[in-house]
Amino acid sequence: MIRLETERMILRPLGTGDFDAFYSYRSVPENMTYMIFGPDTPESAKGFLAMCENWWKEDPPKIYEFAAVLRDGGNMIGNCGLYMDDEKRVTAMLGWCIHRDYWNRGYATEFVKALLKFGFEDLNLHRIHAECNADNIASARVMEKAGMRREGHFIKNRFDRVGDKKMWYDEFFYGILQEEYLARKDK
Ligand SMILES: CC(C)(COP(=O)(O)OP(=O)(O)OC[C@H]1O[C@@H](n2cnc3c(N)ncnc32)[C@H](O)[C@@H]1OP(=O)(O)O)[C@@H](O)C(=O)NCCC(=O)NCCS
Fold this sequence. Notes:
globular, alpha+beta
């Protein structure tokens, strides 16, 4: 079983046994404003968790979706993942979500750094990227703190759900190369 360790968290495969903790934030509109999917119903949350378990059974997985569990107390406070762009396994995308009760304490930055380390050092990826709604200041800030570079600001690039409406919205694209990551001293 793949398990990543950070100073304050353990990242381990997300699965159906995580329903209560997962649903406690994925069902909350404020938590899901900038997520393309959601807020979850019990059925959609269970369906997603079952898919995660199946993804983990692939060898090697194309999608690595982790539960973020606090070392202190064992609460699961969020989930984060690394998603291969295709079968060549040279580039991948990141995604994340944290229970709003735990926002602004550096947890997302901490787990994104662990995902970059995993992607570049263990999976030998060439490039890792992530996108966010340009109004999602917290997500953009996480990527900057984790050492990713804003490579694009696409105007009205996506028509999708924001809060309770569907609309065209701007997106920031962030990326980092393996060679840049390996050369960094603050990783
Ligand atoms: C995005 C998210 C994962 C960030 O998690 P987090 O653990 O709070 O992130 P961190 O504490 O590591 O960093 C957040 C940073 O954003 C800053 N921030 C948050 N809201 C902000 C705001 N409204 N204005 C300015 N800065 C803001 C924080 O101050 C912090 O930066 P700092 O350390 O320089 O002060 C969390 O907000 C979340 O789960 N949001 C809902 C799901 C989501 O949007 N997922 C991403 C979809 S792309």
